[in-house]
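Final report, Chapter 2: Outcomes

The project's central promise was a pipeline that accepts a single protein chain and returns its three-dimensional structure in a standardized token representation, suitable for archiving and comparison. That pipeline is now operational. To close this chapter, we reproduce one record exactly as it appears in the project archive, with the input sequence first and the structure output second.
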Amino acid sequence: MKVLLAALALAAGVSACTAVAAEDVKIPGYVVTVWGASEGAPQDVGNIAQTTDGTLWLGTNNGLFRFDGHRFTEYDVAPRPLPASRQVRDVVPDPKGGLWVLYGDAVEIHLAADGRTVSVPTGLPPGGIGGVFVHADGRTFVTANDGLYVLEGDRWKRCEAPEWTLPSGEMDTPSSDAEGGMLTAAGDAIYRLPRGSQHFVEVAKLAEPGFGGQLVGDPTGRLWVTYRKYTEVPGVGMPTRPAPVNTNHITLFDPHGTFWTVQQGCDGLCMAPFDTAVADMREGRRPTRASVVPAGNLTALTLMRDATGDIWVGARQGLIRLHKSVAQPITAFERGLGWFGVSPGADGTTLVTTYTRGGYNKIGRIDGQDVELIGGEKAISALTRLPDGSAVLVGDDAMYRVTGSAIETMSQRPGVGPAAPVHPAQIVLPQAPGRFWVSIRDEGLYLVDGTNWRHVGAKEGFPTVYPMSGARGPDGTTWFGYADGALAALSPGDTSAPLMSRVPSIGAINAISPGDPFLVGGETGAGVVENGTFSPLRLRRGGLLRGVTGIVRTPDGDAWFNTARGLIRVAAGDLATLRDDPTRVLPYDILTTADGLPGGAQQVRPLPTLNLASDGLLWVAGVSGLATVDPRHVRAASAASPVLLDMRDGKGASILAGGVLQPGSRAIDAELAGVSLGDPGFVDLRYRLVGVDPDWRHATDEARISYADLPPGRFRLEVQARGPTGDWSPSVLSAPVDSMPAFFETRWFAALMVVLVVAAAFAGHFFRMAVVRRRQEATANAKLRERDRIARELHDSMLQGMAGVMLRVIAWERDQRAPDELRSGFRTVADQLSSLIMEARARVIALRSVASYRMPLSEALAMVGEDYGSASAASFHLRVEGQETPLDDVAHLAVMDVVREALNNAFSHARASAIEVTLRYGDADLVVAVKDNGVGLPELVTAEGRRPGHWGMVTMRERATEIGGSVSIDTDGSGTTVTLVVPKPRT
């Protein structure tokens, strides 16, 4: 059983729990990283698993922990109450991203891929549970003391005959073969359960029946049984590549063939080379192993190979990672030798120099593993290769040539002596056979011909300062880079008048790589120069292209940059895209000290610090040593996955599983991380709060984010991750969080506000209308009082005066003493005065009818008609048809004026014996007809619409038009009818 094997490993370990550091674990070819208590790692790590998102899960005696490459987080998924120990005895990932966790030997719990949903299927015995195995066909099994169980829905079902054909004994530590079958050792044999089958098939007998054993596959696909006696199982193929999900073992092979174990008889952690291990195992022996940890420093409990091939070691002291180094150190030039100069030759050898002021310097010729030191202790700071294979070196005192293993002095440097300051050489390049360009710090550029050193400067068109870097292009052009960003180009054979250009924004130019595209690197960046225009290289992670002191292009077109942060690769295909879009952000791969590099690129001479040898190896000069890297074996960056570590509301309460934000605490604080165990420091994150953020926000590696003053609504935090290469990962979404509105943000409040606003509007309207009505009533009353006053004035003064005048004129007309002509004139004046009085009386009646004493229209017209009738022989009659409806004052007065004019004409000119007024009230209008039985109107008056010199009929029509009405006149020899039609006011 897996639990039994882990216990055996624990029993075999060193009992002391002392701290372990990376310096205590020396494994040639591997980079060791240790996380102990001071780094926050849990102790007693007895089980390790890796889920599909790359996260490591650690089962310890104190519970379950998660490791995302940045931090360790305790993850409590145990139910309450827990009827078992909190010790995690087994952790097994499933292909869907979930995790099975065994507490003690009694409670098997499933944590879903969302990291929140926990389920505890029923049906297992109360104890004796060994662990979970997830079959490649998707079925999930549990081994227990009383048999095998399979998960059906949310319940475990015991596998029993005859439905199942089971092994003859208790099953031990199942594993998967290359075809996805389930393999297990049980009783005296090894059994296999194929995909979709319910029948275990025996595939081989065990060499030691009854002892079980762990099944281990090697990188060639062979299956081995490991316990006391090691045996190969023929006919069964095992996976040869790391799986996306992984669990722990006590013995395994890594992808490079190294055998690892924490089994009995091993002091701490042990390893063996592949050939040695296989040779011993074929003889049935345990491999001859070497402990890689000093005795007493490490108690290793378990091993796991992750999806990238790295080995993880769970120990009592914490967690250890073993990462296969991509760099091979040049041990003869490893430490304490200052700065390195490298010049690979076409013959497969490489010339290496060192430069240390007052220190121990070397010149070495390296051929494979052989190092030949030549030339004594010469401080060399610049070197170059010539077409004939020899190398030219410039030191503090002279210029040398190295041919094979021989070194000779070519020329002494001028001005060098015991009392003179020594300025190191910066670069040396061939100009022509026997002639060289040499740059000396603080002195400038020299053209060296034999023993003649000629200073070249402003007179020849060069800058007055010394070049920092130089290179020769495939076409023979010589390039020089300067500290101020100046770039000089000399055509083949030229020694003056270089073509000058400027490279902005990268500081001193320390690396030049002529080609397509033309690449330059400097203190603060790198970029492409094309047709004199510089375009900076933009990587997904800013700031990586700092301190570029070497650029190399491999035969496949990839560009490698040696930088202060590490060795960076930009793929040829990505470089080619810059032709169409120079601003494109490029993916990249990066190697750092975590991959075995000797630190970042050295930042001072000799330059360049990156060289390509004829065998395809990259020679990398770092601040801590010299190493080679095979670019053909550098793995691509691992995919990244986002993890939502924590999420809390404004009061600090966890809402990782969802929740409600109450008013006053409508804020979200979250912690995010990008999981990429292979590139933990180079993961980009982007996130958005769905429902708030219209666009993505960006972060790196780990991030603490906050949202404050959130509006009401339902929100989910969406997170994606991306490594140096590859696309953005699928989204991880938080559980929904509901932000509750304050009362003033609810619909009820909005509805209440609408009601209040409407009510206020109505109240304001009614108040305004009341004010308007009061003003109108006041105005109307004032008008009524004014009309009463005018009517009284007319009646009491003007009419009384006119009546008195008329009586006096009548008296004069009747005076027999007056001549007849004068009496006739008095009669005419009396008639005119009578007409004026009649008209004035009609005006008074009209005013009175719309004054304070309101009078119906029919009554007012009757008074006017009777007034006219009292002074005439013609009879007058008024008739009303329909329900009389009051008119407004304007219409009332207009009707009075029109009818008065019609009555005046009828009584004065028609010579009628009967005059009738009819008021006909209809639904929409009022029709007033004034009819007489007189002589009618002359044709000329009818045709022109008025009497010559009179405007009464015209005025009647104008007044009718002003109130929206009309006047028509019908006449013949039997009389005249004047009809007024007025629209009734709308109610």
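Archive annotation: The chain is about 20% helix and 35% strand.
This record, like all others produced under the grant, will remain available to the consortium after the project formally closes.
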